[in-house]
Amino acid sequence: MSKDSKRDYYEVLGIAKNATEKEIKSAYRKLAMQYHPDRNKAADAEEKFKEATEAYDVLIDPEKRSKYDKYGHNAFDKNNFNFSDSFFDDIFKSFGGSFSGGNPFEDLFNFGGSSRRQKRSSRGDDLQQSVSIDFLDAVHGKKAKLTLNKNTICNHCQGSGAENPSDIITCSTCNGTGEIMQRMGFFSTVSTCSKCYGTGKTIKNICKTCKGSKINSSIELVDIDIPAGIANGEHIILQGYGMPSLNGGKNGDLYLIVKIKPHKYYERINDDILISVPISIQHFLQENEIEIPTPHGDKKIKLTHDTKLNGIIKIAGYGIHNARSKRKGDLIITLQPYMPKIDKKNKEKIDEIFANVKDSTFEEWKKDF
């Protein structure tokens, strides 16, 4: 692909010009997982995967990104030099060492093998996955089984990405140094090899089992413990179920993001549970005792002449029993009075009763208008 037909690297990753390193990594991770040949069999998936990797390689490196922001794709054209003040600044910086671009696969998935520079072992990347649970399971907690993808080092290539050890060869572009030196008169610049990403090695034939990704995925049934009182959007960590490390470090973790399904009647506000209950006028008049369904069993409440028709009743301790904060929320009941259906005969009796009731509350209230 010529530089004239290349898309803007920021556009490729779908990020803003001022994107942070974290945003660049996140954007690339999503595209890499979407278009990796092992996951996506579409005809253009491999090309999009390579395009995203090229964009990431430039934007994640501060030196490369700075040059790209100044000169665009021309910044990496060997036949196109821009002798500006900033260009000479870059040259002088090179005398103290080499420009290290870094392998995007080492940053995100640790693809690319071991570098010629000694690297400390690093843990694999963390992953996220959503899990939906019922409202009452979130209230009480639950032990559940969940089907997950378990990512492990490829057994065939042992994480090298090559079909055979002999397929790992010395990079022909940098002759195994991992760096490219360019001389311009009295000056020279050293940059990371764009072919091997500084590893000094390339792969002639990629592993047929993992398609060069170095990772295999398998389905695994896992027991998870949902704590009582967990809130929507909180997470459960499954240690070691993230991406594996390819340089001797520990596996990353899997963050299960909890999505709580709405309940037909209950609503949660912090650790309190709200419910609206229809109550017949008959219960108010007769001052009956009624049973209110709660997540912790039925609770009896007594209606009295002091109970407001549309009032609110609070039952302490009948809300969320939060296992993390140890707090017990309340059940807040909103009474919704309604008029029961009454036949003609009973209505006449009620009319006779109320005919003898003297109440001037409404009349007194209306005098203020």
From TrEMBL:
Keyword hit for Chaperone: yes
Cofactor(s), names only, from the UniProt record: Zn(2+)
Residue numbers binding Zn(2+) 1: C154, C157, C207, C210
Intracellular or extracellular location(s): Cytoplasm
Described purpose of this protein according to its UniProt entry: Participates actively in the response to hyperosmotic and heat shock by preventing the aggregation of stress-denatured proteins and by disaggregating proteins, also in an autonomous, DnaK-independent fashion. Unfolded proteins bind initially to DnaJ; upon interaction with the DnaJ-bound protein, DnaK hydrolyzes its bound ATP, resulting in the formation of a stable complex. GrpE releases ADP from DnaK; ATP binding to DnaK triggers the release of the substrate protein, thus completing the reaction cycle.
Domain notes per entry: The J domain is necessary and sufficient to stimulate DnaK ATPase activity. Zinc center 1 plays an important role in the autonomous, DnaK-independent chaperone activity of DnaJ. Zinc center 2 is essential for interaction with DnaK and for DnaJ activity.
Quaternary structure annotation from Swiss-Prot or TrEMBL: Homodimer.
Protein name stated in the entry: Chaperone protein DnaJ
Organism annotation: Metamycoplasma cloacale
Taxonomic lineage from the root: Bacteria, Bacillati, Mycoplasmatota, Mycoplasmoidales, Metamycoplasmataceae
Gene designation: dnaJ
